[in-house]
Amino acid sequence: MSQPTPPKADLSRGRPYLAIPGPSVMPDRVLNAMHRAAPNIYAGDLTQMVAEMWPDLRAVAGTTQHVAAYIANGHGAWEAANANLFSRGDQALVLSTGRFGIGWAESARAMGVQVEIMDFGTSSPVDMTRVEDRLRADPTGKIKAILVTHVDTSSSVKTDIPALRAAMDAANHPALLCVDCIASLGCDEYRMDDWGIDLTVAASQKGLMTPPGMGFVWFSEKARQRSLGSDLRSPYWNWGPRAEPAEFWQYWAGTAPTHHLFGLREALTMILHEEGLDNIWARHRVLARAVWAAFDAWGAGNPRIALNVADPAYRSCAVTAARLGAPDATRLREWTEHKAGVTLGIGLGMALPSDPAWHGFLRVAHMGHVNAHMTLGVLATMQAGLQALNIAHGPGALEAAATAIAQGAA
């Protein structure tokens, strides 16, 4: 008598895991810090905490200069930067390496800025020679600012910011250097002052390990002086009172985001006063290399599987974009989420959602509050999904990832 076929097991129960590039994993300590009654927003512990936290906000970006905070996401931080940097009709040069470079350009253009985009595609780094040549062709300095993503969240392309600064200096061009650090702050090495950056934008929900809802703009004195003549500044976006408030409410142009601040305070303590930025950058490098090693091994058996960025020097240590070929990336994402409780990122910006090719791309995040067993667990779950779905792939991925972890730990 034949035995009945056992039912397929649903293995997704337990704590779900988001391996998407934001919101990142929130530490329990951050969540617990937010789990409290509303505070007095006029005096007392909250105002003292913020006064002590602002030096840490500067430190995490590698600057001693100005910082303004907004109740906003990354798009809001773009708008804050645009509103303070530009007047209507000013020219900006955008260096695009993915969807978010284009997004910042669209934001500026919608506000009346004349935007020129140098588009380097979705898999290639910025060509510094082309940038230098373009700046030399602007001897009167009509270009007021260069806007660039340090790490484009969609493509995972990382821009060499010191090399960009060198190209600007070689062309002797006065434009402000403005960097979107939303995906990379607190993950990839970033040194605003040392690298000659005039403006940095970031948000709370990635390397800063705090729920979405806060945007930040760090800016140099040169950028502050430029902002004094901007005709785009509205009362809310004006960074002047936020950076140098006479009264506490001016930090926010109104009521403070109280519970976000409690969470951010705990996150900055973990980042700066416990682990330290040097180890954070090293940890992210090791975890990224483990992910890359796994994809290299999988791709050895199926050329349809490959990392989006060929040269490791231009890959983000916070997020990895990859292709599996349509429809296998979507099939794998659905399997890992619904069968095993691991959510992978969609392939943003690689194809239109209406294009069947869209189903061939995905992203794996390894940003923020992530350690070796979390990353190895994601890769092992992906390996199980590849096997369950009969997606051709090369052997040895988990061994290669484990070796990268072991070498990094040593």
Could you write a compact summary of the structure shown?
The longest helix is centred in the last third of the chain and has 23 residues, at 277-299. The N and C termini lie far apart (56 Å). The mean pLDDT is 96.
Q: Strands, helices and their partners?
A:
Elements: E1 17-19, H1 28-34, H2 45-61, E2 66-71, H3 74-85, E3 91-96, H4 99-110, E4 114-119, H5 128-136, E5 143-149, H6 161-170, E6 176-180, E7 199-203, E8 214-219, H7 221-227, H8 239-243, H9 258-275, H10 277-299, E9 306-307, E10 319-323, H11 328-340, E11 342-346, E12 361-365, H12 372-388, H13 397-409
Parallel strand pairs: 1-11, 3-4, 3-5, 5-6, 6-7
Antiparallel strand pairs: 2-8, 7-8, 9-10, 10-12, 11-12
Helix pairs in contact: 1-9, 2-9, 3-4, 5-6, 10-12, 10-13, 11-12, 12-13
Structural write-up:
Helix content is 40%, strand content 15%. It is an alpha/beta fold and 410 residues long. The chain has two domains: 17-24 and 276-409, Aspartate Aminotransferase, domain 1, CATH 3.90.1150; 34-274, Aspartate Aminotransferase, domain 2. A seven-stranded mixed sheet has the order 2-8-7-6-5-3-4, with helices on both faces. A five-stranded mixed sheet has the order 1-11-12-10-9, covered by helices on one side. Helix 4 (99-110) links the parallel strand 3 and strand 4. The longest helix has 23 residues, at 277-299. It is globular. It starts with 16 loop residues before the first strand and ends with a helix.
